Backbone:
């Protein structure tokens, strides 16, 4: 452990590029079904470190499109895996990074997501009907990026999310579900994108979220749990969206993240001295981005994409 | 990958790892092939079982099993056979959960099966499984979600589930999941007024005792503190929304220039704002719920608008703008306006309770000099500096009489709830005696209890007591800043609200910061100076509705939310604060009379991350149509991607004077030109004449 020092950006870039090629280890195989998520985590990290050009864009897009199910309009987590919104959002986000939404049949993809909204406003993850506020966020985020938010019943979608609000100010996966930082990000993100943050008690939720900071500086996801680098993203982004991020100690958090780096081989782990993976590498760098770490591009807290990408999508001339 | 130690691969492990990987690779390939070929044989199903045993997250394998189950079901007729097919699936789930008790796919597979309702559910088995799981990890939220699902599925009474949370809490006080479920169940039972849950007071008293026991057992554990905060919120909020302030106040005499009346600067533009301020956000203000009666013929379509930054249907503060410009006031120099809230049921809080005290007030407006005020000689159009205001001689306060007129409306004074106060006082006594002197939660909770008490004791003879509570709370927040420096700025924000409370709680207190500014041709303007007070945010805006010149310079403000209620504000000094973006200034777009704004020496343009980006309406939150907002800017080749926030702000204000120096954004290329372009009414920018 000890002093995490500075961000080993070059090492992390190398780690991401090599992980991408190491498909045959047991660890990679266990994650095979979510490779499209992995692509989003890795590529977004590269972009945040201003190294997106380290990969061949056309190759990436071609592979992304090979996970597409033209009959449904959704994406699977990898070639041959079933379609699900979890991977559809990642596909949309990666295409946004490369400014290549033109590769999509936008209306077909949008209709896939639209078709998953239920009568009560909630969203299913796929045809099998699992309902979770994560899927509400995914649907709203993806449709907004595709400029197709108007295709769903936004009011009902918002009402459902609000019905998952808890007495501690947080949100759960479904009505009655316990507050959890990841779930809070999803609900606050969906409310932010739909201009509905007035449903959030910002002081109450802000206090709950800032109390996620543990003694060692890292953030946990629920009370009385261990700190974990991934919550640097879930908690920080939520705090930013509700304008309460100054309630935590950013220096201590940055130190915690930097201490979780593998400074030799690159990559970031959940806690100091644990095994690194692409997921925590992304969340660590994204967390540093939200704390304005020098050399890391700033990120949009709601769309989970670099700020310039989001600004381009919503502000450029064509729209 | 969570909780796996980082270590170099040992060579002797490599072979084993390779074999393990090869097995998994084959399995995954075979299962996917069977899935695509729609092969649902026993052998094929066995392979998917094996795969899910190793990797319960392989979601396509769960989908495959559902398809197979449906397919094979068609061939089964005996109920026993159906039951056995279900059993097979339940077993796969159990095996998968052994590998990963937090597998979304596994838990959902089980719910899906039960929801098919093909056979009676063995609830003993289900609850047994849950007991085992929650014994291993009492916080597994999948387990708790499944428990709620089951309870609903089989119609377990909420009272029973409430007992279960009690069992779990007795096992271990530090079980946030159980406290959470308890709060959900109790809220439901109280809303339904189930038997034994008719009295909120009785239930909450018992809960306070229960949670206090937990808190005293281990004050460093967070679980109980959050529950306590919830109880406190239930205990301190009044049942019905109340009107706590208005502008104009009852009996006020308004004009633009008569020195014996209150200045209303917007009368210059023929607009008279009426502001109503409630103690909590309400909706439903309209021409049908609020009756306006006037000898002045006001338009029939009176529109009440919510004044809140997030602009929802609910707001603490509501405004209507009466148009008085088109009057033939040769015949009418003075008119009176009566405001009454008549239709009480229409004004409703977020929790659904309605406004319940009828309210009535009236004021008069003198129009005599509106047309004689020449635009060119408007004193506001001369450069105003902030050091011009001499402090008032201590023995005179010319504004005194007018302030008396601006007192908070009394129509809403509510009966203090004795139970609330008693309960809170008991808690305060308890926490003052808590032996662990350095528990930050104990101090914070005590501060919150004191402030809740102070809020109830806001009037008349209790004012002294209220001040005492505020003093004690301030001391606690100061302690906390040192005790828990990581959350320093949270405590500073809380302290800031108490400070504003103290500064404004009665007229005696406010007077110290008040003076008037006499400008030619205008009635004197009320000036309030709250400088160098370490304020980080504003509260109690309802007490400042009458302020026309507000100096908040040399504080640590990063948000100005609340100022949108100050519809009389003409000049605002925010220099030397910590405002870090134009989006944070969005409240100003709601103040129609604002002419002079000093933003010098803030942090606008310093921070790449804008924390008000989603608080302020924008194209990212679909509250503003980008094409409409930016069309003209695009034509003028203004960089919309870089300056969208400045554009949205300046498009919606009508400033005559603006100071921006000492902000990083002012040095950006082309920015100052953009400011001048966007503000056609601007005469002075950073002290120089621009138009």
Residues:
């Amino acid at each position: 452990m000890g002093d995490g020092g500075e961000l080993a950006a070059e090492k992390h870039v190398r780690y991401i590029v090599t992980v991408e090629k190491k498909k045959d280890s047991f660890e990679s195989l266990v994650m095979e079904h979510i490779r499209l998520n992995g692509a989003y985590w890795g590529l977004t990290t590269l972009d945040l470190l201003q190294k997106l050009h380290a990969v061949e864009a056309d190759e990436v897009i071609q592979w992304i499109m090979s996970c597409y199910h033209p009959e449904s309009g959704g994406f699977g987590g990898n070639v041959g895996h079933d379609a699900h919104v979890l991977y559809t959002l990642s596909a949309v986000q990666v295409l946004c990074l490369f400014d290549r939404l033109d590769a999509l049949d936008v209306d077909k993809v949008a209709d896939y997501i639209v078709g998953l909204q239920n009568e009560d406003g909630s969203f299913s993850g796929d045809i099998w009907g699992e309902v979770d506020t994560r899927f509400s966020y995914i649907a709203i985020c993806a449709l907004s990026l595709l400029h197709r938010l108007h295709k769903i019943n936004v009011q009902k979608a918002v009402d459902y999310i609000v019905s998952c609000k808890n007495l501690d100010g947080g949100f759960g996966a479904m009505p009655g579900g316990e507050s959890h930082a990841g779930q809070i990000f999803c609900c606050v993100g969906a409310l932010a994108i739909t201009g509905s943050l007035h449903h959030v008690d910002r002081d109450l939720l802000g206090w709950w979220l800032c109390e996620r900071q543990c003694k060692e500086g890292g953030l946990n996801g629920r009370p009385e749990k261990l700190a974990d680098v991934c919550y640097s993203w879930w908690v920080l982004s939520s705090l930013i969206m509700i304008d309460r991020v100054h309630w935590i100690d950013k220096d201590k958090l940055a130190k915690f993240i930097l201490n979780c780096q593998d400074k030799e081989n690159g990559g970031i782990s959940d806690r100091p001295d644990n095994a690194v993976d692409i997921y925590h590498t992304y969340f660590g760098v994204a967390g540093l981005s939200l704390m304005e770490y020098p050399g890391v591009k700033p990120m949009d807290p709601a769309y989970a994409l670099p700020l310039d990408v989001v600004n381009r999508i919503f502000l450029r001339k064509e729209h | 990958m969570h909780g796996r130690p980082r270590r170099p691969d040992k060579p002797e492990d490599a072979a084993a790892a390779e074999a393990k990987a090869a097995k998994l690779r084959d399995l995954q390939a075979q299962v996917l092939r069977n899935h695509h070929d729609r092969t649902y044989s026993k052998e094929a199903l066995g392979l998917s079982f094996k795969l899910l045993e190793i990797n319960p997250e392989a979601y396509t394998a769960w989908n495959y099993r559902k398809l197979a189950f449906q397919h094979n079901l068609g061939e089964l007729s005996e109920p026993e056979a159906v039951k056995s097919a279900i059993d097979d699936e339940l077993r796969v789930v159990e095996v998968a959960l052994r590998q990963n008790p937090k597998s979304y796919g596994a838990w959902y597979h089980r719910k899906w099966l039960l929801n098919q309702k093909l056979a009676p559910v063995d609830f003993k088995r289900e609850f047994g499984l849950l007991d085992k799981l929650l014994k291993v990890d009492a916080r597994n939220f999948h387990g708790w979600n499944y428990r709620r699902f089951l309870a609903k599925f089989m119609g377990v009474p909420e009272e029973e589930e409430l007992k279960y949370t009690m069992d779990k809490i007795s096992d271990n006080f530090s079980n946030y999941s159980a406290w959470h479920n308890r709060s959900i169940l109790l809220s439901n039972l109280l809303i339904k007024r189930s038997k034994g849950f008719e009295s909120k007071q009785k239930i909450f008293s018992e809960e306070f005792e229960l949670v206090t026991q937990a808190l005293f057992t281990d004050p460093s554990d967070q679980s109980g503190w959050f529950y306590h905060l919830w109880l406190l919120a239930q205990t301190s909020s009044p049942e019905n929304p109340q009107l706590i302030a208005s502008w104009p106040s009852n009996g006020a005499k308004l004009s633009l220039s008569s020195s014996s009346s209150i200045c209303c600067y917007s009368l210059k533009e023929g607009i008279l704002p009426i502001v109503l301020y409630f103690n909590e956000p309400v909706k439903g203000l309209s021409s049908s719920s609020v009756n306006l009666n006037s000898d002045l013929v006001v338009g029939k379509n009176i529109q009440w608008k919510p004044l809140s930054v997030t602009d929802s249907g609910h707001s603490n503060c509501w405004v209507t703008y009466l148009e008085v410009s088109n009057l033939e006031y040769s015949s009418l120099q003075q008119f009176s306006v009566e405001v009454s809230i008549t239709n009480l049921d229409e004004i409703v809080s977020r929790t659904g309770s309605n406004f319940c005290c009828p309210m009535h007030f009236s004021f008069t407006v003198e129009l005599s000099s509106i047309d004689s005020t020449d635009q060119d000689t408007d004193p506001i159009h001369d450069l105003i500096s902030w050091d011009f205001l001499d402090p008032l001689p201590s023995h005179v306060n010319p504004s005194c009489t007018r302030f008396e007129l601006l007192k908070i409306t009394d129509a809403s004074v509510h009966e203090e709830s004795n139970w609330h106060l008693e309960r809170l006082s008991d808690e305060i006594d308890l926490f003052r005696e808590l032996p662990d002197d350095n528990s930050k939660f104990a101090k914070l909770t005590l501060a919150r209890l004191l402030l809740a008490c102070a809020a109830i004791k806001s009037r008349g003879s209790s004012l002294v007591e209220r001040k005492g509570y505020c003093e004690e709370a301030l001391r606690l927040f100061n302690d906390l800043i040192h005790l828990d420096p990581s959350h320093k700025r949270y405590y500073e924000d809380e302290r800031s609200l108490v400070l504003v409370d103290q500064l404004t709680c009665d007229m005696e207190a406010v007077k110290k910061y008040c003076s008037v500014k006499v400008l030619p041709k205008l009635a004197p303007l009320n000036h309030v100076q709250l400088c160098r007070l370490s304020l980080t945010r504003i509260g109690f805006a309802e007490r400042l509705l009458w302020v026309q010149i507000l100096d908040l310079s040399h504080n640590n403000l990063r948000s100005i939310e609340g100022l949108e209620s100050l519809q009389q504000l003409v000049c605002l000094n925010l220099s030397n604060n910590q405002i870090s973006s134009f989006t944070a200034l969005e409240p100003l777009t709601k103040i129609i009379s604002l002419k002079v704004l000093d933003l010098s020496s803030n942090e606008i343009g310093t921070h790449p991350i804008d924390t008000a980006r989603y608080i302020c309406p924008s194209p990212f939150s679909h509250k503003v149509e980008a094409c409409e907002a930016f069309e003209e800017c695009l034509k003028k080749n203004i960089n919309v991607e870089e300056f969208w926030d400045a554009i949205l702000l300046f498009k919606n204000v009508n400033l005559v004077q603006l100071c921006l120096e000492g902000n990083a954004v002012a040095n950006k290329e082309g920015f100052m030109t953009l400011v001048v372009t966007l503000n056609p009414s601007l005469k002075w920018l950073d002290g120089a004449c621009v138009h």
Observations:
- Residues 35-48 of chain A form the longest helix (14 residues).
- The first strand of chain A starts at residue 68 and ends at 69.
- Chain A has one domain: 9-315.
